[in-house]
Specification:
The complex is a heterodimer of chains A (376) and B (323). Chain A has 15 helices and 8 strands. Chain A is an alpha+beta fold. Helices cover 68% and strands 2% of the residues of chain B. In chain B, helix 1 packs across helix 2, helix 5 packs antiparallel against helix 6 and helix 9 packs antiparallel against helix 13. Chains A and B meet through helix 4, helix 5, helix 7 and helix 14 of A and helix 6, helix 10, helix 12 and helix 13 of B.
């Protein structure tokens, strides 16, 4: 017979432990969430991670500096170019490699396009989580698929591009392809995004699900270590692309998308605004693209001087930090990733209590998890 | 009973069961196809003409699957559970009338009979959810019971408005009373309430909380597989069919059609249209949250339904010829 524990005084109730995941439709990978629930209200929540651990940081120590780029694709598999760039920047700074001007522009272009596709996946996931049976999900795939076609044409791969190299990028993008990208991002893409925005933010039920759910102040979020769009939705202006410009961000005209409300709907608005802003930036990059080389000469047996370097970049999910340490050999001594989602997810025990079970998915969607980067 | 009556009943039983099978199979196919096209894709395409054979294949798969009973499940309740939803769902269909005099049982209280059997459904869902000893099914079952019970009341009150206007609970009388003007035009408020409440009774989006996929995996039916799962699906599509029938019969004129002779064809068309509407909702709307679901029923639908039935009764007294 079924016996749920129920003891104590008559009329009192006990909480129940609900294991959401690791095999659950909406944990976006293999996250295990131990929720203590009372009725449908979450009393406490504890994320359990590690189901997707592949030992990438350790693996990197047994491969050469160039060979490690392929591993960085597998960190956050929805924001591949951001990871590659963070790693390449760290190693380039360590080894003192000059990157050609055109390569910097190309990298920024692809990373901004990557921000779009990453946010589109967030959009697809969050709409699915609140119960819209895949219609917005597949709509988001339309624009994503167009951009993935560009990835494929440029890098030869859709998901794991392995396109950046130490000292530049692997392949150049010709002007015809750039024009095609520009046409898409300037003409077709904003129309698509209008539709996405209407489907999500314009929907009455979505508003009732998200408005006022999971309201956090910027101070709270900073204390918990949350970065990225989730933090900017609470009014913070923190964006490394503006604060510590890298690549060609200092030469682009863009604004940091923020919102003052700090609830789940605000986080949606910020991400949708970032999609538009990134598309605008891509157009600017294509217009301002200089000519020249795309790859500096770098020895295959690269031996960076002894020391360590840490760089910070703004990945679609927040502040992505990479530390590389060299002992003067062809292999890194240490490769360490500061994953934004790991810190965002660590805030879950603070964020979830007193919310309903259904709100958990909305708040999850607000921080946009990607388990590949957390577990590494 | 005479032999003719037995044969009549037997033929109708076989016919109704066939109807349910066809409704389930074609309903699933049409749902996948329709939502596919809503989503800029094509849905099933490869087996047979536009994927028509996909569903027989799915049925064969479902029947031939291993019958899995979880270790910790209550074996008896686990077996009985699907029957407890499928039997009332099918029994309710016995009272459906498809044309004057064309149906299994033309009961004086046909509407009452249908509602009575639909009221049994939450019990079945609760048994299903409880017997599995899984927390997801338990939450799903409690949600189903709470939702079905709270939406039954506005649904019944809205249907009572029609009964007051028609002066009968017999479906034939109700539909014949709409030979002139359909009740959707006489009682638009009642139609709105009934439509929303029926949607919730059928567990359809945006009220699909009991099986909320992203929250509860599959709600009360999480642990079911094979033909037991098939039975639950069968019950759901039967309820969908009955609900669409009720909307068509009570508010959309049943077999009547303006300027055209009455025919069961119109009724079937209206049922298909209603079912398609629910699929359209499913492809468009996200899901409500538990608390807003409850407040919608108790704070909005119920008071409005009470006002509606008062207004209809007053109008029926004041304007006996028109209402």
């Amino acid at each position: 017979m079924v016996n749920f524990p129920r003891k104590g005084v008559e009329g009192s109730t006990e909480t129940m432990l609900l294991n959401v995941g690791p095999q659950h439709p909406s944990t976006h990978g293999v996250l295990h969430m131990m929720c203590e629930i009372s009725g449908e209200t979450i009393v406490s929540a504890k994320p359990v991670i590690g189901y997707l651990h592949r030992g990438i940081e350790k693996l990197a120590e047994s491969r050469t500096w160039q060979q490690d780029i392929v591993l960085t694709d597998r960190l956050d598999y929805v924001a591949q170019f951001s990871n590659e760039w963070a790693y390449c920047r760290a190693v380039e700074r360590l080894a003192g490699i000059e990157v050609p001007e055109r390569a910097e522009w190309l990298r920024t272009l692809l990373v901004e396009m990557n921000r779009i596709t990453s946010h589109l996946i967030w959009y697809a996931g969050v709409t699915m989580d609140i119960g819209a049976l895949g219609t917005p999900f597949i709509y988001a795939w339309v624009a994503r698929e167009r951009i993935f076609d560009f990835y494929e044409a440029v890098t030869g791969a859709r998901v794991m591009p392995n396109w950046m190299r130490l000292g530049g990028v692997h392949t150049d993008i010709d002007s015809a392809m750039l024009k095609e990208m520009r046409d898409f991002l300037e003409r077709d893409f904003p129309v698509e995004v209008d539709e996405y925005e209407a489907l999500l933010v314009g929907n009455e039920i979505v508003q009732s699900r998200m408005k006022g759910i999971g309201v956090f102040s910027a101070e709270q979020l900073v204390e918990w270590g949350v970065t990225g769009p989730a933090l900017r939705a609470s009014g913070s202006e923190r964006d490394l692309r503006k604060d510590v410009p890298y690549g060609v961000y200092d030469r682009l005209d863009f604004r940091v998308c923020t919102d003052d409300v700090g609830d789940s709907l605000a986080r949606c608005r910020v991400r949708l605004a970032e999609i538009r802003e990134s598309a605008r930036m891509c157009v600017q990059i294509i217009d301002g693209m200089p000519g020249g080389d795309v790859r500096a000469k770098v020895s295959r047996a690269l031996k960076p001087p002894v020391g360590d370097v840490c760089v910070r970049t703004e990945s679609p999910r927040g502040e992505l930090g990479v530390l590389v340490a060299s002992d003067g050999t062809t292999k890194p001594l240490r490769f360490r990733v500061r994953s934004p989602i790991f810190y965002n997810l660590s805030a879950m025990p603070h964020m979830l209590p007193n919310h309903l079970l259904a709100d958990m998915l909305v708040i999850f969607g607000g921080i946009d998890t990607s388990m590949g980067e957390i577990d590494r | 009973m005479s032999a003719a009556m037995w044969i009549h009943a037997l033929l109708w039983l076989v016919g109704l069961l066939l109807l349910i099978a066809v409704v389930t199979v074609m309903g699933v196919w049409w749902e996948r196809k329709f939502i596919g096209h809503l989503q800029r894709r094509r849905g099933p395409l490869h087996h047979g003409f536009h994927g028509l054979l996909q569903l027989p294949a799915d049925m064969v798969k479902m029947i031939s699957k291993e019958d899995i009973v979880p270790d910790s499940a209550d074996p008896w309740l686990f077996q009985i559970g699907p029957l407890m939803v499928v039997v009332p769902a099918i029994a309710a269909m016995a009272a459906l009338m498809f044309a004057p005099g064309f149906g299994l049982l033309d009961m004086n209280h046909g509407l009452f009979y249908i509602f009575a059997f639909q009221t049994l459904l939450p019990l079945g869902f609760a048994v299903i959810g409880w017997s599995c000893a899984s927390k997801f099914t338990l939450i799903g079952a409690l949600r189903a019971a709470a939702q079905l019970i709270s939406y039954e009341i506005p649904m019944l009150l809205a249907a009572l408005g029609v009964v007051v206007a028609a002066g009968s609970m017999r479906l034939t009388d109700i539909i014949n009373a709409q030979a002139g003007v359909w009740y959707i035009f006489k009682e638009p408020l009642g139609f709105a309430i009934f439509g929303i409440a029926v949607l919730a009774e059928m567990n359809r989006t945006p009220f699909d909380l009991p099986e909320a996929e992203s929250e509860l995996v599959a709600g009360y039916q999480t642990e079911y597989s094979g033909m037991k799962f098939g039975f639950v699906q069968l019950a759901e599509y039967s309820v969908l069919f009955t609900g669409s029938y009720l909307v068509s019969a009570l508010f959309l004129g049943g077999w009547n059609m303006p300027f055209l002779p009455a025919s069961p064809l119109w009724l079937l068309l209206k049922i298909v249209a209603c079912m398609t509407m629910t699929m359209w909702f499913r492809g468009t709307f996200p899901r409500l949250r538990v608390d807003s679901l409850m407040s919608l029923s108790w704070k909005w639908l119920l008071p409005i339904a009470l006002v509606n039935i008062m207004a209809v009764a007053a109008l029926a007294l004041a304007l006996p010829g028109i209402y």
